[in-house]
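Sat 14:20. Reprocessing the chain from the morning session after the first attempt stalled halfway. Input below, unchanged.
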Amino acid sequence: MSERKALLILHGKQALNEEVRAAVEGKRKQGWTLAVRLTWEAGDAQRWVEEALSAGYTQLIAGGGDGTLRDIAEALAAHPNQASLVLMPLGTANDFARAAGVPLAPALALDLLEVAPHAIDLGEVGGQVFLNMATGGFGSQVTANTSEDLKKVLGGAAYLFTGLSRFSELHAAYGELQGPDFHWSGELLALGIGNGRQAGGGHVLCPEALADDGLLDISILPAPQEVVGTLKNLLADGFGIDNMFVRARLPWVEIKVSEGLHINLDGEPLEGDNLRFTARAAALRVHLPENSPLLSTLQSANRPG
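Finished this time. Tokens:
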């Protein structure tokens, strides 16, 4: 790599993280010029990305949870091919990083600076992008309503705990999904539109998703009465109900619902009754492990024409 220079955009809550500090110092001792900037409020990630690009940085590091990674990815995708991104997962769920095989230890994550970046896709809806997954229905409400204090105590299990405690609030919603050679309509409990494979602290909703195939993986959990009656057990099993999902892999999908559908975009809430999701192929260059499960070995063949 020609220039060993990078900028870490770090979530403000991680400012005193000694493991991150040690990882940064270790990389500097290896000859890297590594600058650090902190985010404190909305808009900071975009501002730091733009300042980094203006200063000539071609490698950025996103240090934080799934929401932080999404914010930085969105800002960077607005400047195609100007810089590549390393993920330093520091959140509770770290769903995209875990599915991609990115090390959770900060020092090991920074070692990916030495690995060549891969072009991966992003999902987009209503002008907003997501790196990992858009979830809808019950699952997205659970994620949005899981408290920060609970996540600190229970980690990823906090999402499941919140889901079980909100069981009495469960209701299905009627929806219609339309895409190329695909149509589905009916009552649904949960919906996943994935660039990554898991959401909500480890629930695998799109088990075959690839981040570089130019497609979104669609997973629909229908709501027949027998499913509603046993959902508590299904949640306790960690969504081990693959045979009940309706799945598709599409470059775009339109969703219409009879009432506003609560959507969660990597932690960012969105609501609407008529939404179009599209895959932005090769929108972002990310340093992922060479054996990452999210990378296709047939990239060009899998991209839609």
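The domain at 5-116 is CATH 3.40.50.10330 (Rossmann fold).
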